[in-house]
Amino acid sequence: MFDLRGRRVWVAGHKGMVGAALVRRLGTEACEILTVDRATVDLRRQAEVEDWMAAARPDVVFMAAATVGGILANDRHPASFLYDNLAIEMNITEAARRVGVAKYVFLGSSCIYPKMAPQPLTEDSLLTGPLEPTNQWYAVAKIAGIKLCQAYRRQHGCDFISAMPTNLYGPGDNYDLETSHVVPALIAKIHAAKERGTDTVTLWGSGQPRREFLHVDDLADALVFLARTYSGEEHVNVGTGTDVRIVELAETIARVVGWTGRFVFDTSKPDGTPRKLMDVSRLTALGWTARIGLEEGLADAYRDYLDHLRRGGVRQVRYTDGAQAGP
Ligand code: GFB
């Protein structure tokens, strides 16, 4: 059991959806939370990361910093997704070793698994087949992040672990329709249809792919749980163990928002992986299960969207072709 009490805990990427949820969750622990913003340290620059970490001396690091986005953003910004994520994770992993971090929790993604891997996705299906082309760049970077943790554990004896969350949603999401994931995009589109009295909403692709959705507060809780209880070379899937079709997700969001129109499909947009459902038996065996149901979680996400609109609705992501390291 790793004790967080009295530790200096750095949440890398604290302004992003995952990092912000971690800061909320760690606020209930007797630890000191460290953060640093992008204007002070560009996480893609090794010297900046090493200097800051040498001065801040964290005991624990949650690596929630990443350049992220939905299916189209991944497809359109391959260099940003590959370069930014490789640079960020290499810099932080090496600096964590240098300053003697006692626990490092690296975050990956369910897109590390082969496109046609058997479902549900077990941890050992990693590197058994070709990746989904739309997000292969992000996936390769995240696979390298897992391997870095394993290599540093083997060569340097570092207690570095990796968690692989499924598709996430919740407060602090990116609602920009071009770059966002499906949940915030559909919340924004369906809300707009309700406000304007429009009776159709367009979904990208066929609506038939299946995805598993985890509320970000459940993820933050799972990460704190893993930091405390898990120390091993193998990465650990984090999900709910249940998935839905995209069209079912859209219907649930329509119920939450209170809109009763119908969906049309833009099949010029990609479907991506046909199904992405995590096998969560490793995490369940360790003693953690998700608590927030999809409809309840979507209601929470919708409240966040309404707040976001009240605040002026600006929360944009730019990529390195317009340059910045992730949220
Ligand atoms: O969430 P999403 O962008 O990411 O899309 P992935 C999920 C599914 O929803 C795809 C469909 O089949 C989309 O075609 N979809 C329908 C929409 N309407 C929309 C819409 O308006 N916006 C969006 N964004 N999708 C991402 C990866 O893949 O998953 C990332 O690209 C990351 O790298 C993330 O791994 C977890 O699940 O397809």
Which tags fit this structure?
327 residues, alpha/beta, six-stranded parallel beta sheet, three-stranded mixed beta sheet, 41% helix, globular, disordered C terminus, binds guanosine-5'-diphosphate-beta-L-fucopyranose
Question: Would you mind describing this structure in some detail?
Answer:
The protein is an alpha/beta fold and 327 residues long. A six-stranded parallel β-sheet has the order 2-1-3-4-5-10, with helices on both faces. It is 41% helix and 15% strand. The C terminus is likely disordered. Helix 1 packs across helix 7 and helix 4 runs parallel beside helix 5. It binds guanosine-5'-diphosphate-beta-L-fucopyranose. The site of guanosine-5'-diphosphate-beta-L-fucopyranose has 25 residues, from helix 3, helix 6 and strand 7. Guanosine-5'-diphosphate-beta-L-fucopyranose (GFB) binds next to helix 3, helix 6 and strand 7.
Query: Which value, in Å, is the CA radius of gyration?
Result: 19 Å
The proportion of residues in beta strands is 5-15%
Order of helices and strands: EHEHEHHEHEEHEEEHEEHEEHH
Return the structural class: alpha/beta
Q: How helix-rich are the residues, as a percent range?
A: 40-55%
Low-pLDDT runs of 5+ residues are: 322-327
Main sheet properties: 6 strands, parallel
- Overall mean pLDDT stands at 95
**Quaternary structure:** single chain
Strand order of the largest sheet: 2-1-3-4-5-10
- List each distinct ligand once: guanosine-5'-diphosphate-beta-L-fucopyranose
First-last Cα distance: 31 Å
Shape, please?
Answer: globular
Query: Number of DSSP helices?
Result: 10
